[in-house]
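Budget justification note: compute hours in this period were largely spent on complex prediction jobs such as the one shown. Inputs:
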Amino acid sequence: MYYHTKLYINSNAFRIMIEIKNLQKSFDGIKVLNEISASFEKGKTSLVIGESGSGKTVLLKCLLGLHNYDGGEIKFDGINYKNISDKQKMDLKSKIGTVFQGSALFDSMNIEENVMLPLKMFNNYSNDEMLDRVNLVLKRVNLENVNKKMPSEASGGMQKRVAIARAIVNNPKFLFCDEPNSGLDPNTAIIIDNLIKEITDEYKIVTIINSHDMNSVMEIGEKIIFLKEGKKEWEGSKHTIFKTENKSVTNFVYSSNLYKKVREMYIRNS
Amino acid sequence: MIFFHNIGLYFVMLKKMFDKPTKWSVMKQLIIKDTQDTVVNSLGIISFVSFFIGGVITIQMALNMTGSLYPKYLIGFATREIIILEFAPTIISIIMAGKVGSFITSSIGSMRVTEQIDALEVMGVNSINYLVFPKVVALLLYPFLISIAMFLGILGGMAACIYGGYSTLDNFITGIQTEFISFHMTYAFIKTFVFGLIIATVPSFHGYYMKGGALEVGKASTTSFIWTCVCIIILNYILTQMLLG
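Corresponding output:
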């Protein structure tokens, strides 16, 4: 019962992380990911940024096991994803929460059923226990009394929150978000960013976010990886990105006059 | 080459449908929902089509038997044979390929486009089992639908025959009882069972493996209808040759 009344039980005294080494992926002979290496730590919000077609989504799909990669390795908590049995893969999947770009809520289910589905799949709780848990996570993402609404009746921001609630309902250790604030107004986008950041800090999970949004980069990018044409071009944080001289990064991040001025102000003040 | 690749992929999909089954508590609800969507919701259109086509078959039979040498009960006999042997199992299946098949392709295809299938896979769910298996189970009830089509087709024929003044009720009933071969029912239901599996799996295949956006969902629905019809017609020929030839 404890599980259902506490949002999260953080019993991970050991260091949780995801490690990628020399990851490669090609489609029809075209290299989409080229020798990418990176590590992602628990309690940190890591952002993968880059232009469209730079390989961000393919990288995320390789991490999620939706694409088979051609070379290199992915380790979750030191265990190579390719060398584990189907049962271990299932265990691992039960520890992963994902927020898709378009929320990917199931149209035929209401919000409550959407959030409850991962619980039904991986656990044997009674309906009341699952309902307690669903209400708890919905409350955590600031959604209450919306259980019976269908996804089509919810706004874009609300759908994203439901997707986050569904991603965290099963107590994940790893949270993957593919452009979580795309298509949202600036205010809702900030709320979603902050929500993901709070959840990551509070429950010490490994969070990887694919993003185009420069506000996210400046606000929550504790670790930032910049991809260009399938290669890791630069790695840093929201602090170091202001000072970098890497042309590709500055061209991408400071493409607007507003961000150029913000950067100049930051450098001047520091 | 792509044709053979797709045939192979179709059989791989059928095999994967039985791998890593979804929890029964979840599957039970999916089966009930798919039975509602595919079988129960088709009752109206199937009843309507069967009744009126049954009537048309009878009228055309009657108009082609104008000579005094033809006994009038042959109208009922021919109506029964046409409806049981071909109209109910095959033509209704082609109608179902359009109604249910395009529904299956577009619903699974939309899930593919909106990453709902990816979401299932990430949750560790065997998405083929989750999406296709309940439809196959639901369409096991398809012979029930066809038996209603047979009944209403003959009823429609009877109504058209009597109210159109082509024959008497006694003659029509004599006709539908004349030289009744029970194996024809077995043959019809074997065909129905096979067509039910085709209607559940071929559109699912086209929806599941589609690529692209909303426009491609529409294209996949059309392609799925064409291939479902092709499969039904070819299997109809093969089964008829095997069982009646």
